[in-house]
Write a structure and sequence with these properties.
alpha+beta, D-amino Acid Aminotransferase, Chain A, domain 1, D-amino Acid Aminotransferase, Chain A, domain 2, 2 domains, nine-stranded antiparallel beta sheet, 23% helix, 25% strand, binds pyridoxal-5'-phosphate, transferase, pyridoxal phosphate
Length: 408
């Protein structure tokens, strides 16, 4: 008889060696990931692949046109010792929306949940123990993988689920408000584009402006609606949520923007449900103008998403160009004529790149709004939210959020 592969001993030893208190948001190589292939019209039965560098060469060709989308969710070890995944069915439906937006075959909710459970089950020893703030982050993604050079959908696709134990994203958590910035001259999404989906192409263009924002002392970027620049859309990787001051009965209103170019956050949706069902507050999902935010309508504002849950926003600065009275408020669309600029300038696209040093130097003013509250409302919401994920909230089962119900 041949001995079984030794690979598992190494993974088990790696899991046993993790210091759960020190966990951040870095890559921790786990035992395995789940990989499914779509070919000739159907997804196959999938395999568990020992963790190692993914071999990019298989799918490189069709990555040129950006056929790639992803999800992010978490598994928790709960009070009863069982591991459950937070609302995988909601992420599964959102992945379908993303796949449809960029002509990729959908992954059924059943297959998505199966693949997630499979990857988590094979890596149970990488889920932080109950009592630690960490979790097992799950990153499912779909990419076009067949060789392809024409602009048509890839002939083959991969659906892969990788897992990675994580701790806190920002160490500060809810007690450290951060500054947000609305940068002039960059939209995250197009008015009728793909902002409502988690397709890969939405994210790379944000990397440069994010670096620029960090350089100026801002932790997060906030975006306005791309069409009118009057309404709040969302942050680069999380939704915008606000609470009004409590009324005489202690009740608040949870307000979050509604727009075609916002990614529907599972965290935002769950916090909304908790606000109404657990706290008896009111919730509104509607257009929220920058003017409304500036007018002091809200007591607390947070950025919310799976990675951080809620990040309190202490202040929002909006850059506005000082001279917007000229013929063209946006220098990017200034007309060029060979009569005045010569033929070379007619095709000089350098100024279309909005993030040059020139742009940094353009005269601008800042409109600011500060939130001086102690984030009491969102602290309550976040606590209840965490207690559902750990099984500490009375009646957590009734939400039906932690799956599978029997645990892994
Ligand atoms: C992933 C993401 C969110 C957060 O969604 P969750 O489901 O709560 O994790 C919000 N906005 C954008 C742009 C995102 O990519």
């Amino acid at each position: 008889m041949t001995a079984p592969p030794r690979i598992d001993d190494a993974a088990a030893a790696a899991a046993a060696a993790i210091d759960w208190d020190k966990l951040g948001f870095d890559i921790v190589r786990t035992r395995s990931y789940a990989e499914y292939t779509w070919r000739d019209g159907a997804w196959d039965a999938g395999v568990l692949v020992p963790s190692g560098p993914l071999s990019l060469d298989v799918w490189a060709t069709s990555l040129h046109y950006g056929q790639a989308c992803f999800e992010g969710l978490k598994a928790f070890r709960m009070r009863d010792g069982k591991v459950r995944v937070f609302r995988p069915d909601v992420n599964a439906r959102r992945l379908q929306l993303s796949c449809r937006a960029i002509s990729m075959p959908e992954v059924s909710v059943e297959l998505f949940v199966e693949a997630v459970n499979r990857a988590v089950t094979d890596n149970l020893d990488f889920v932080p123990p109950y009592g630690h703030s960490g979790s097992l982050y799950i990153r499912p993604f779909v990419v076009g993988s067949g060789p392809q050079v024409g602009l048509t959908p890839a002939p083959e696709f991969k659906f892969i689920v990788v897992v990675n134990p994580v701790g806190d994203y920002y160490r500060g958590g809810i007690s450290q408000p951060v500054r947000a910035v609305i940068q002039h001259g960059f939209d995250r999404a197009a008015p009728r584009g793909t902002g409502h989906t988690k397709v890969a192409g939405n994210y790379a263009p944000c990397l440069g402006p994010t670096t620029r924002a960090k350089k100026h002392g801002y932790t997060v970027m906030l975006f306005l609606d791309p069409k009118t620049n009057r309404y709040i859309d969302e942050f680069a990787t999380s939704n915008f949520a606000a609470l009004t001051r409590p009324d005489v009965n202690g009740r608040r209103t949870y307000v979050t923007p509604r727009s075609r170019s916002i990614l529907s956050s599972v965290t935002n949706r769950s916090l909304t449900e908790l606000a109404v069902k657990h706290f008896g507050w009111t919730a509104e999902r509607r257009q929220v103008s920058w003017d409304e935010v500036r007018s002091g309508a809200f007591d607390e504002v947070v950025a919310c998403g799976t990675a951080v849950v809620v990040t309190p926003i202490g202040a929002i600065d909006r850059e506005v160009l000082l001279d917007t009275a000229g013929a063209s408020a946006d220098p990017r669309v200034a007309p060029l004529s060979s009569a005045t600029t010569g033929i070379e300038h007619l095709w000089d696209d350098a100024e279309l790149d909005n993030y040059t040093d020139d742009d940094d130097a353009a005269p601008r003013a800042v409109q600011s709004v500060e939130f001086s509250s102690n984030f009491e409302g969102f602290k309550q919401l976040q606590k209840a939210y965490r207690q559902i994920q750990t099984g500490d909230l009375d009646g957590w089962e009734s939400y039906g959020w932690m799956l599978p119900a029997a645990g892994l």
